[in-house]
Amino acid sequence: MPELPEVEIARSLIADQALHRRIVDVDDSDSYVTRPHPPGELRSALLGRSLTAAHRRGKTMWLETSGTGDAGAPGGAELGIHLGMSGRIVITGPDGTVAEAGEPRRYDARPPRTAWNRFTLTFADGGSLVLFDPRRLGRVRLNPDIGALGPDARQVTPAAFRALIMKGTIAVKARLLDQSKIAGVGNLLADEILWQARVSPLARVDTLSSAQVNRLYRALKSVLESAIAKGGAHTGDIVAARHPGGTCPRDGAPMAHGTVGGRSTWWCSREQALRPEQRNSSA
Ligand SMILES: [Zn+2]
């Protein structure tokens, strides 16, 4: 599933290759992906405009659009794109070259089908921007509301992180996954961050020591930057150990497995052992 790194790479690709190209056609016929907009609404909002900037908070992107070229016409709506569980952005240049970013292609069990092109902008230069999404859980909409999202995980300050992470008694992994607190961390990144910081995923947030919170913050930053540089959350150090019989790449201890925050979770049985006082009966 695309997490912050994949979405940031997709945002960066759009910023590099899709801006300032006039939109001459819009295929918004998949009314599930474009809900609540009826077919044609996105098309009429975007025709004749171009994308002018690409932004991201957590896993949500939104693109600014230009005026239609008529003198004095104001800029258009913002186009929100969420990659969902399996979405990729595919951009075709004026010369036909194709670049893509989002969910890594290696996860596809089946060869790509054009029916999985859920939303398409066609540019005046002959190229296009496509949301390609086999599982159809991505979303395209105008003026997306990002008010329910917490600060972006790449931008959050140490003080805000401490305040957001420690409130309540929930297990720390569940807190890291809560997009309303800190936006952008998904299942693979959360396990990687906890492993880097040597903190049990089950530890109650109100029992975290100052040193543990500091380690979590540093791990958040380093794990995000590494994943963005290497191409996605699947490049983490413990991804290869996420299976029965897997061992910790740091000390060779067996990896432990359980469900935390509703998600499949792997951690080092030795370095991330839960201290008795950090136990959460509801985790
Ligand atoms: Zn270990």
Strand content: 15-25%
What would you report as the Rg, rounded to the nearest angstrom? 21 Å
What structural class is derived from the secondary structure elements? Answer: alpha+beta
Total of helices = 6
User: Order of helices and strands, N to C?
Assistant: HEHEEEEEEEEHHHHEE
Largest sheet: 5 strands, antiparallel
Poorly predicted runs: none
Main β-sheet, spatial strand arrangement: 1-7-8-5-6
Helix content: 10-25%
Shape, principal axes of CA atoms: elongated
Task: Describe the SSE topology.
Elements: H1 4-17, E1 23-27, H2 41-46, E2 51-57, E3 60-65, E4 79-82, E5 88-92, E6 98-102, E7 117-123, E8 128-132, E9 139-142, H3 158-166, H4 172-177, H5 187-197, H6 210-230, E10 255-260, E11 263-268
Antiparallel strand pairs: 1-7, 2-3, 3-4, 4-9, 5-6, 5-8, 7-8, 10-11
Helix pairs in contact: 1-6, 5-6
